[in-house]
Design brief:
The protein has one helix spanning about 25-35; strands at about 5-15, 15-20, 40-50, 50-55. It is an alpha+beta fold. About 5% of the residues are buried.
Amino acid sequence: MQQNTAFRLTVGGADGLRQYHLHSRWVVKIYVQTYLQLGKYIRLEQLIDGLWQPANI
């Protein structure tokens, strides 16, 4: 199996939900850290074998 670095980050707040599709683990870490500091809800998923699976950074 091939390692896939596609991530989907869902961020929630008072203004609704936003989704980001990212391809760099480094960029994902920055987004997650920033949104956590802002107190936003986040959900991180990684594309594995064509399915989005919960991910940890």
